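User:
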Amino acid sequence: MLGWFKWLGGRPQTSMSEDELALWRQALAAVPILQGLSDTEQTTLIGLGQQLLKRKTLTLIGVELSRRQQAVLALQAALPILHLGLDWYRGFHEIIIIPEPVTRRQEVQDEFGLVSEFEEENAGESWPQGPLVLAWSELQQDGDWDGFNLVIHELAHKLDMLGGEADGAPPLPGQMSSQLWQQAFQTAFDALCQQLDRDEVTDIDPYAAEHPAEFFAVSCECFFTDPLRLQQVYPAVYRQLSQFFSQDPAQRFPATRLLAGEGVVGARAINTDHPL
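Assistant: Predicted structure:
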């Protein structure tokens, strides 16, 4: 059954009721990767989350989301544009939530012309000028310092597509060098591919080696949800993303996790109390 839902929130901060503000504050407090933001950043993030839900149609297919769950989703979606602004999410108007990832049969042809088929499971999809599609079963696992975040990954593709074809090179703020960006990302992408060629275990999701666009999206996931790992493995990529987003998530990483040995190369946190 196809159901649809459009939330009419997004009122300015000054007109929010105490109950509504409390709901957004609770949603923000429930997401580990949103901790460590300044009071001003928290206020800005809540405003962006509200406007995101106001300007984008949220279409629910076979799932239901409470207002708190919508707020948690919107806040994570707004995190990358905290210092960029909502205009960076222009060009699409709908976010579609489905229950589970979609499995599609794909065909691939090798250099000898041989065609083979395989099944690929897609938890999220985005197209130029098209909607964002996200699987609810995967979204419920987002929000922790574990290196994975579906909504950030797919929205990174949207940022990438602002420059045309998704190629890992989004439009850069004026003060940034496209040459330094290209050098940092190409060097890291090549190193990852070489690791896989040697059958080595990679320090980030090996899916990043599929294409430069996927490397960018996976790097954005790591930047916001496992920053120390990305900073240690690909420091030049981390520096470029820090300039691009005007954020330094490594400074927000909780000291308690460092003491527990999490957030370092070779370790991964496991979230058993997901905010969604």
